[in-house]
Specification:
Layout: E1 4-9, H1 13-25, E2 30-36, H2 39-49, E3 53-56, H3 60-64, H4 67-70, E4 78-81
Parallel strand pairs: 1-2, 1-3, 3-4
Length: about 80
């Protein structure tokens, strides 16, 4: 089974910690390779790691900046919107 890589985009430390704990408990299937407070500050992180999945808290700022995702040159990344 292939390991799924993920990045967390969220400005809430508790949410980030919860997702990181989930990844630790499921380390055979998922690895968190980084996190950022919002899309605009995390786009370089996304480009560098080319994750399979982005956990995205759909804040107003993130929804406004979601077009940055369209500029990615690698395979279409899957985005998981979540509310904490």
């Amino acid at each position: 089974m292939r390991l799924t890589t993920a990045i967390i985009i969220d400005d809430d430390a508790n949410s980030v910690a919860s997702l990181k704990q989930f990844a630790l408990e499921n380390h055979i299937i998922i690895s968190i390779v980084g996190s950022s407070e919002n899309i605009s500050s995390g786009i370089e992180l996304i480009k560098t790691h080319e994750p399979d999945l982005i956990f995205l808290n759909p804040t107003d700022k993130n929804l406004l900046d979601i077009n940055y995702i369209n500029d990615l040159t690698f395979n279409i990344v899957k985005i998981c919107f979540y509310f904490y």
